Every structure is written in C-alpha cells, then in structure tokens.
Amino acid sequence: MSRILVVDDKEENQYYLSALLVGHGHIVELAVNGEAALVSARKARPDLVISDLLMPVMDGFTLLRNWKLDETLRSVPFIVYTATYTAPEDERLALDLGADAFLVKPSEPEDFMLRVQGVLEASARQSPRSPRFAPNEDDSIVRQYSTALVRKLEEKTEELKRANSALQEVAATRNAILNALPAHTALLDADGVIVSVNTAWKSFADKAGLQSGQFQEGENYLAICDAASGPLAADMRAVAAGVRSVLRGERQSYSIEYSSPAPDSKEWFRLSVTPMGDGHAGGVVVTHVNISDTKRAEERSRKAAERLSLALKAASIGIWEWSAHGPMLWDERMHDIYGVGRAETVTYELWASMVHPDDAEPQAAGLARLEKTGQSAREFRIRAGDGAERHIYSVEKASFGADGRINNIIGINVDLTDLREREAQLKASNSRLQTLINQARVGILVHQNFVPVMANDELARIFGYPDKHAVMALRDCRVLFPEEEHARIRDYNEARLSGYNAPGFYAIKGLRLDNTQVELENRAFPIEWGGKMSVCSMFTDVTDQRQLEAQVRQSQRLEAIGQMTGGIAHDFNNLLTIILGNSELLEAGLEGQPKLQAIAQMSIRAADRGAELAHRLLAFARRQTLEPHAVDIDALVSGMDGLLRSAVGGKVEVSIKCDPSLWQAHIDAAQLESALLNLCVNARDAMPDGGWLTIEASNQVLDAAYVANNVPGLEAGEFVMIAVSDTGTGMDERTRLHAFDPFFTTKDVGKGSGLGLSMVYGFAKQSKGHVRIYSEPGEGTVVRLYLPRAGAEALGPALVEERASFVGGSERVLVVEDDEMVRSQVCEQLNALGYEVTSVVDGVDALELLRQDSNFDLLITDIVMPRGLNGRELADEVLKRYPHLAILFTSGYTEDAMERREGDELLAPLLSKPYRRQELAAKVRAVLAGSQSSPARQSSSKMS
C-alpha cells in the first residue's frame, strides 16, 4: 500500500481518483492546487504524486518544477494527469521538467492503474526521473512554459470566436433544446432572475399548485421561493438557500429530494442546482427530475448491491452512513471489522468508544473538518468488540442540507491491520538486522574490485581504524592485509566474480593500522550492491581465540600427563609399601648379621627416595595429601629469608617485597615452602655468574573476563600473587611451554630430576590456584603463583601426630585391600604387632563378612577398589550399620578420598602409601584410642 497525493481543483476528479486508488489498496491525500500540494508533501512525504496541470494559485507545471528542486521531494515519482494541456509540446515540457509519466484525461481505470503501478515499481528499482534542465536554466523553462500558455490562449481565442459566431445559433436553439428536455429546467442568472424556462417546467409549476405566471422569464426565482406558501413552502425556502449557496460559490452543487402532495399517487422529485458555464458568476441551472421510477428501481438494485457488498468484503472495505442525530448504518463488513453483532444498533457514541483513546477525534472537530472540505481521509486504531486492536483507514464524504450544514455522511473503512503488522515486522526485522550489523562482533566489508562501498564499525575496530568512514575512504582495501596475502585475495576475488569456485571460509592474516597483525576468519561471497556485482567479506577476529586454544591445549596436555603420572605414582606407592615394609621386617630380623642388616637398611633408604619421587609425581598430578589452612604469606616468606639466601649462594642478591596489607592464603604451608625453595634453586641455576632474585607478594583480583581469556578452568576471585623473578638466561618459547612437564629439564644428566616445576604446578592447581611463567632468552624469568585468599571457613593448622614407638595391641582388625602383595605385607606387619587380623579383597566381601561377624575393632580399607564399591562408600555403609567400628583409610593417592561436599568432614583418618612400620603402628593405635571422640564418629552417631 502506497501513500498517493492527488492534486486537482475539481471535486469530481478528486472523488473519482480517491475511490479508484483506495479501492486498489492505496492511501490518498488531496490538494486543490500546487501550493497546497507542496505544503502537504513537506509535512508528510508521499510515495507518489498525481497532478493536474491547469489549476488556480499554482499550476501543475510550476508545481512539478518546484517539486524537482526540493531536496526532500525530488525522489518522489510525479505523474501528470491532464485534460487541458494534451499537445506533444506539453508532454515534452512535462517530461523535461522531470515527470515520470504523462497521462491524458480521461483514461480507462485499468489502464490508469497499470501506469500508476508501473511508476511505483520503477521507483522502487531506480531513482525517479530528474529534470533535463539545470536549476540555472530558468530562461529556457520560461520560454517553453510561455509558449505553452500562448498556444493555449490562441486556442481559447479561436474557441471564443467560434463560440461568438455560434452564440446566436445557441440563443435561437436554446429554447428549442430546453423544451425538448424531459426534465423541468430553468436558467437563472447570478441574481436569481429567471433567464429561461422550458414547457416541462411550467407544467410542473401548474401541477404543484404554484402560480405559473410567477415563473416567467425576468421573474426572480429566489423571491418566489422565499414567498411560497402551502405544503411545499418549507422545501421551497430550502431550495432558495441552496441556490444562493451555489451562486456564492460556497458549494459546487446543491440537491434536494421531496415528494409531491398529490394524495392519489405520490411521486418523488429531485431538484438539482448546478453552476451554469465556467465558475459561478454565470448563473445556475435548476432542474426537477421525476425520480419515482428510480425509487421503484431500488429494489431491483438490491441484488446488484449484494454483489457489490461481496466485492467490497473481498477487498476488506466496509461501508457506513450516518445522518446527524441518528444511528449509523453499517454493512456486514463494518460489523466484522469492529467485532459488533450484525443485529446490534450502532450509534455514534458506540463507534467513538471503540476508537483508541490516543487516536480519538472529538465529534465537533470531525464535523468541522468535513464542513470545510466536504470530505476527508484519516487513519486510526480501534479496540474491536472481540478485544483485538485494528488499524483502520477511513475515507468520508459529506452531503449538505439547504442550511449549509451536514445532513449525511457516507464513508468507507479499510482494515489495514495485517498491512501494519507486516510493516511493523519488517521494520523490526530491519531494526534487528541493523542492530546485528552494528553490534555483532563481526567485521563486514563490501567492496567492488577492492574499492570499499560498505563497512561497519566492528571492521574498523578489528583493523585499528577510528571508525568505518576511515575504512570507506581507502582507495584499495587490500592495505588491510599483509603483502603476502595480496595474491591469494586477488585470485579469490577474480574467481568469485567470474563464477568460478573460491573458498567461502578461510583463515587470513590482517594488518592493523599500527602495522600489528591479527588472526582472522573470513566468510566471503558475491553480492549485488548498487546494481554491480561485489564481494562481501565477514571477518571474525580470532587472535585471542588462537592464543586461548594454545593455552587450553597446553592445559589439556598437562592434565593428561597428570592423570597418567598419578596412576603411575599410585601403583609405585603400592610397590614401595611392600618393599619398605618387607625391608623393615628384614632389618628387624637381622640384628645379629650386620652385613645383611646393612643391605636391608640400603633397601629402606632406596624405598624412601622412591617415596619422595612418588610424592613429587603426586604433587604434579594434584593427588598429594594437603593440609590447607589460613597462612600469613608475609610471615612465611620472611621466615624463609635465611634458608633461601643459603640455598642460592653468595653470588645471587635476594630481595623480598611483600604488600603491607597482604591477605592470608588458604594453602598447605609446607608445600608452599617447598615450592618457593624449588623456584629459588631453579633461579640460582639460571644465574651461574650471579644476579638478582626478587620475591614479591601482592593482592590480586582475577575477574571472570580475565580468567576466561587467560586461565581456562580457574574460578574467578581474590588471590595472593607471589612472583619469583630472576635476571638469568631465560627460556625460549619451546622450553617455556614444556617447563611444567614431568622429567623435562635443561640441566645436565644427574643435576636435576625435572620434577621441581612439575611439583609447583601440581601444588598450585590442587590448591585451586594458578601458576604462569613469563620468560624470554637473555631477559630472565618470572614465575607467578596465584593462591586463593583465605576466607572465614579456612582450616586451622593440622595437628601433627607424635610418632609413637612400635606399640601394638590385641584388637581385631579387618583389612580391605585389592592388591594381594600389599594385603599380605600389611597383615604380616599387623600380626607382628600382636593384632588379630582378617583380610578381604574388596568392599563387597567386607560387608558380607561384617554381616556374619561384626565383632571387629578397626577397619583398614584402601580408597580405590573394584566391584563398584570404593573405600569411601564402604566407610559410609559401615558407619550406618556398625557405628562402633573404627576406620582407617589408606591410599597411594588421596584425590578420591578428598572428594566431599563443601562443609563435610572426613569420615576417617588417612595413612598415605608408602608408609613405614612405625607410621602404621602409630596410626593404628591413634585411631583405636581416639575413635569414639573423633568428629567422624560423632557424625556417624548422629547419622545412626
């Protein structure tokens, strides 16, 4: 649907074009001359203007010229529709002034609408016609315009001559013509004096009971009507008022219907008053027409009206009529549009109550507008009876009584709801699309042979330009890429525009305005832009993503190595448990054989070294046993000053700087001391000729954005950062990426195990922190530890058990261990300590045994076991069923045992493998002695 401005000073032409255009779904605005058209168009820009040429105030040629000179209106297409200027020279002048079409009145409705639709469609595809004259070529335009006027004046002069020559013939034949007319006709001059009447008029006066002598030529018709008496007196006075209104030019015409007073056969007449000649100064023609046959034909027209109603319904057009102070007459379509029952009487008040409050118009204002122009068109919203909100376009036309007031209004309503919803959806879609283009993190570039024709702000941001206009100013957009990419870009572009295959998605390097490079992904495809084949490229900056992917790959690699390392260390601890236990038994049994006892002691020392190695592997794998609590980092680091200076030697200057307001960290203090010592020794080795070693500690807050981009998997929060910096040889990129790998070392054989940094890495990760290395060859190294800040829930220092002597007992002990050699060794050591020992291979067998005999004092169970029941789950069941039974966990690593819900306490103490006989003896006695008072036991009591 388009908004069309119709410019014509003839009311009948306006009404005809309005009905035709509205019937085809368009919205029509009206103007009576060129000046009014410009005012209307500048207030609300139309989609098309259709203008007559011969008009008062401002004619169509002048309007057309002003239209094309107006910056806001020149793009609106302009159709000339004329019945006066029809010569080829007139058409050429109109087209030269920029008209898009030149139509001659009258045109067939179908042909007319085809031309209108064609102009609208052409305007949508391309810009409307521009004038062939430059703005400064006024003389040429004036000459052509003057020529057209002179030619028209000459034509009119010739017409007047012919008219004058025929005037006498007209005068001679006028009476004959009037008498031949079946209608009762009288000609009045500007003062209402009767110029001529026909015989039918005189017969009508006699039949109506009027004095026929009063209607002779020369009598004043108005005076006769004013003085009338009898049944028709009121109608006659109304006629006089209507004639005067036409003579004064207040209205184009006047008509009234009335019936004859004859009692035997009632007949109906219509009196019509129309101007005579051009304008109103030439008098009027008054005609009486017998419309009785028309009245009787109304019934015959009913079926035709029904067919018309169906057509209007199909076009979603409702028709209504309203006489002042009476009900409104609606057709069925009006009732459907407004959701009002068809049997319900519709008043003006009911209709007004359904109009949306924001669009309501007071009745007086609406009537005043109609009284002024006789017709109007507007759009408003309604709240229909079914609750729906609808958009209505209404066209109204008023008819007037003899007093000049409106006595009837007829109009049409078009339901525009679907159209407005589609427009709103399209507008919203366009808005969302523009928002996506503006806000999307995708740079968009459209170019024609590398000349930019469209760019968005994100593209400018990616390439470091101030804004998209700076990109659009480039003569060749290939400057956005390094020179080594130019050949590939050129080949891809030629292939796309030639219809050959070219990659639609590929990685490419970009060159920012500051000459730094960025990693990009490009989605490219051909597109028509401004009528020319172009290429659209959509760039995504993946520089940070590539860096993050490298970090994730390194983290995943270390995680995989950690899982493998933890498994190896677990099995290694099981073996060391057997070796260490058996070696201690051998040492105790070889007291009288010094040489053999020395061999056993050598085995014990070797097993201890293996346990230390396994401990470091578990630290890297984050499966070591930690005892975290709130630690004063400042005090810890300051307390290590002497140890660290001794460890690095006199060639290295040590500096310790801690923030005075340093937070406490929630960590295992012993493990942190070990980690710092490892880092300082590594720094010393990187400075063989001496240098500076700096240890700094400060508070750091890592937000979610930093963590997401730099430390995948770490929770954002508050950390204590400890940085160990040296001025040593530094590392290259390959060495830095592998620095945390177990057994990776740059030292000579025998000078390092390659587990120092691995242990630091594992300790940081297991403490829910993070560690990063910054290093370049010759520039030294900085290792930063991020340790979580201690909260109110931080654990206090763990109690350190005093080592007991080899004290045994006679209690009954149930050992659950799936490794046969470990199980045998543990049972042998416990038997040697005097305990009564029973063993099973897994938790399922343990529960079955306890069901038969629960008279045990202690359950010693491994954490990781087969058959779907691990040590933690076994302990849960035992505490529920046998709360008297003490529990001791053992494990080669403790990750599974440490998995508990936040706030839970450990169910039982833990003895980490490998352990010495003395540790086993002490731990067993401690658990048996304190089982009833332990937190776990109390918890189990509550559970039971």
In short:
By secondary structure, this protein is an alpha/beta fold. The protein has 31 helices and 32 strands. The strands form seven sheets. A five-stranded parallel beta sheet has the order 2-1-3-4-5, with helices on both faces.
Output the keywords:
31 helices, 944 residues, alpha/beta
Describe it.
The structure is a single chain. By secondary structure, the chain is α/β, with parallel strands linked by helices. Helices cover 44% and strands 22% of the residues. The chain is built from 31 helices and 32 strands. The strands form 7 sheets. It has a 5-stranded parallel β-sheet with strand order 2-1-3-4-5, with helices on both faces. α19 crosses α25 (756-766) and α21 runs parallel beside α22. The longest helix is centred in the middle third of the chain and has 47 residues, at 543-589. The chain is elongated, with a radius of gyration of 52 Å. The chain starts with a strand and ends with a helix. The model is unreliable at 619-623, 748-755, 792-805, 894-905 and 932-944 (pLDDT under 50).
